[in-house]
Amino acid sequence: MIKAKINNLPVEVQEGESILDAAKKAQIKIPTLCKHPDLPAGAGCGLCIVRIKGTPKMLRACCTPLEEGMEITTHDPEIVAVRRTVLELILSNHPNDCLQCGRNNNCELQTLVADFGIREESFQKFLPDVAKDDSTRTIVLDAQKCIRCGRCVKVCQEMQNVWALSFLERGFCTRISPAGDIKLADSPCIRCGQCSNHCPTGAIVEQDETARVWELLQNQDKYCVVQIAPAVRVAIGEAFGYPIGTNLTKKLYALLRRLGFKAVFDTNFGADVTIMEEGSEFIQRFLHGKGTLPLITSCCPGWVDFMEKFHPDMVDHFSSCKSPHEIVGVLSKTYYANKKNIDPKNIAVVSIMPCTAKKNEIIRCEEMYASGCQDVDVALTTRELARMIKQAGIDFVNLPDEDPDHLLGDYTGAGVIFGATGGVMEAALRTAYFLLNGKNMQKVELNQIRGLEGVKVAEIPINGKKIRVAVAHGLNHVEYVLDKVREAEKNGEEMPYHFIEVMACLGGCVGGGGQPYGVTDELRTKRAAGIYQDDQGSKLRCSHENPFVQQLYKEFLGKPLGEKSEHLLHTHYQARPVYAK
Amino acid sequence: MDTKIVFIKDTNTKLDTTRDFYAHFLNLLRENALEDKVQVVRIADIGIYDQGLVVKFPDENIIYANVQDKDLKDIIAQTIKEGKVIKELLFKAQPKQLRIVLRNCGEIDPENIDEYIAQDGYQALAKVVSDYKPEQVIEELKKSGLRGRGGAGFPTWLKWKLTRETPEAQKYVICNADEGDPGAYMDRGVLEGDPHSVIEGLILAGYAIGASKGYFYVRAEYPLAVERVEKALKQAYDYGFLGKNILGSNFSFDIDIRLGAGAFVCGEETALIASIEGRRGTPRPRPPYPSVKGLWDKPTAINNVETLANIGPIILKGGSWYASIGTEKSKGTKVFALTGKVKNSGLVEVPMGITLREIVFDIGGGMLSDKGIKAIQTGGPSGGVIPKEYLDTPVDYENLQKLGSIMGSGGMIVMDEDDCMVDIAKFYLGFCVDESCGKCVPCRIGGYQMLSLLNKITESQGKIEDLDKLKRIALAMQKASLCALGQTAANPVVSTIKYFEEEYRDHIVNKKCRSHKCKHLLNYNVIQDKCKRCRVCVINCPVNAISGDKEAGFFVDPKTCIRCGKCFEVCKFNAIAKE
Whole-prediction pTM value? Predict the structure, then answer.
């Protein structure tokens, strides 16, 4: 342990802890715009300077570890004055269009400028002449608003291992852009949106499609149905002052009806269907040797994109099953449309997702049009939904609880845990156990594969067999797992795993790129806790028990992996170039 | 034999005897039937002053000073015919210089390892690998008091000790030859003139810290230095000074060259490491210092060219010998690139503690013009100006810092009354703004804002509150920048404001540049008494700013005038005033 003094208060921290983190123990929050708890210190902004007794320099709290006996001052008139100047310098290079900005009211720079009471512009304004890049139609990169903190570059390169974003040029002309100054859509970008989630300003935001949804809702010819993803329900509350992780599923149902949707479904139902298909797929491969092992989950579109670009040798390992919201989408326009006798062309499906990549997934390939028209019409992020609620003026907090619409709205505990890392695997194993054993697990919780460790491995004994599984989240953790598979393949050894779950975002969908800003491990954990609580409170906790899923197969699909299922619920993967051109 | 060129010049300004000497020289060449082989050129300035008749062979860089007519016979017989150097006639370096780093520069053939060996070259290496433990090398350096010559002056022994003590099997040493200060060429001089001295220093560093691999990081704009280092490395391998089991010992060491692409910031050690690793050349936070986590995350000692060239002599002659030179806290010698308005410009190596006055007037031969000395700029773009009042300051790390400048890597520019301090500050700051890596706010935006303020001031748009803004941004840059480039980029501005604030005020309030450097603050006027009404200025003015007629006289319209100075240039009667 390191003992030192911060503002004359004794503090004790672990060796290696930065002054910035240590200061929290002395109830000091040192301002910074570049340090993010998820990321190593980049030392880009220069706001977090502190004074250390015995050195004439000021040092950066974000990247200076506390040392034994240090005496640190975190604020005095000169420190505050220097921080103020640095902030004003940032402002001199940042447009003043806060009112029209995607981060208005939710911007770290705006907040600091307000805190420092900056009332005038001391320095001449110099703005870079760079155009917006909305080529991905999922995230919009507005380099003019960029303060070059480097968070997005670190996220993209180190956390996600995608390397779509980098710094170009140098000095005053430094800017973020895909390498080679190409469009983001032509770059390796997988649309995970983590850059937008970590950006302190409005330089990277999601493509806002709320206007399109309003138009659909207004269109009298359209029968608008909506679905919410598992992770949305435990995060939307953050925009309305709820404690982090509060589960607002039933309020969301009420809300969506009041927004004008004719049917309110739940992606969790689709998750239950996914498990029926994917679980059967696993059994096929595991028990009957039909297909390649390990089976790798495919419900995360960021991960799918990443695999197709960077690891196309894994194509055969992928589950061909579509992601849950695509399943709800296609079933809305086939099964539900049949039942309700509506022309599928007149149905509009809106998915509320924690994810920006879903905006791209809905037009990914021809199988996303399996119903005969585009299965999901619009994918909105949690952030966009929050804005729609406020636009509508609905008093979200005081809404009554309501239930979803039947056929595609009821779910089991297995469906909801899709929102947290390890959840898909846990849900699949619950059903696989049943398929292999003919009865449910006694204890359905698989704590070994829950939590925020980057790679989680476990061995699950089922019916005398041992199923080896691996769960990875945050794409920089994937290579380790895949390399183990490749190594075994190369050496002709037994596969290290039978089943692998990957989610592109750290923590899984609860930490998705379309979730409310300010994500940290603490938030991820609390949101996940909300999800696990929902599971625990469910009467049915295994997908195969869902009566509406059973009805679906009985009345419409036939059986998992049957002809109709294959046609409607499955897709294909192929190698894609890392750079589009 | 190609035609050989010989420069001659009488450097005694008062009595020029070049003409007679030239005739005599030609006669002698004719007598020797060499008139077609040797071309004698009288040149206007040879860069040397008060040294009598000077004869220079530019190809061989042989300079003879105080040459008498009687010496010409020998020069023709020995130097021109035989290619031999006449030692007695050689132009001698100024007595106040003390050459340790530059000991062999200009004395030996840099491409011939035998000549280096003949000057005790690689003796230190031989001594160390047979008799010294690595710790003893570091101990000797500690005794010597040698501090890093790259600029910051960190004790070299301590850097080596810290690197040595970091527990890790693989370690690296790097020679930082990414010299980039405008006007400075100390490292280039050494690498081109005596590459083996640096290589030997790098091998010794490797031995002392326990590294098996070293890198030369040389900027690609130094092609001759690169070529000479490459040749020298090959020779060193051939002689067994590099490679496996050096000189039969257990010590093995390899050196590779990496070329820098010209970014100034890559002279900063963490950016340099990033560049070698193939990443974007931007500094990273320290700690961890490279001595703990350097190249490929391994302990790495990075030393400047000049530092390394000192190591051999320190080992051979002992740390105490080195410590006997210099001041209490700054030991040994320092190489400066002396330039500007001084008669003898060039590389000079002086013992620490010598005064600025001695460097400028005794070694540099005084001022080039009759304009008085105004200030000396040291430390390049990271340094500051030192006004003439402080000329008697002994040069060492601490003193220069106290005066608001730094030792830096060794640039030293002498300025006279014709130099505008705002313009100088603008020049250096402009350099740093161009070279900022762009990573952190204070340097990236602060530098740019300061430069735009300086531009305003020199373009007659300055306001008095701009001075406060300059000071405010400068403080933020010094305190909040990540690396030394940003922390020191404001120094030229801060130090010129400190000593020459009046000049800034003159620019801002009176819209005057007393050195006539800032063209937007100049006014051209026709001096009616002197004007002959010839209309040459009217015809030559590119913007038709001069009008009038023969009766009323001609006048410059200051609103139209673009201050190009054409009228001033073309007037034969000095009838244009520049003020």
Answer: 0.89
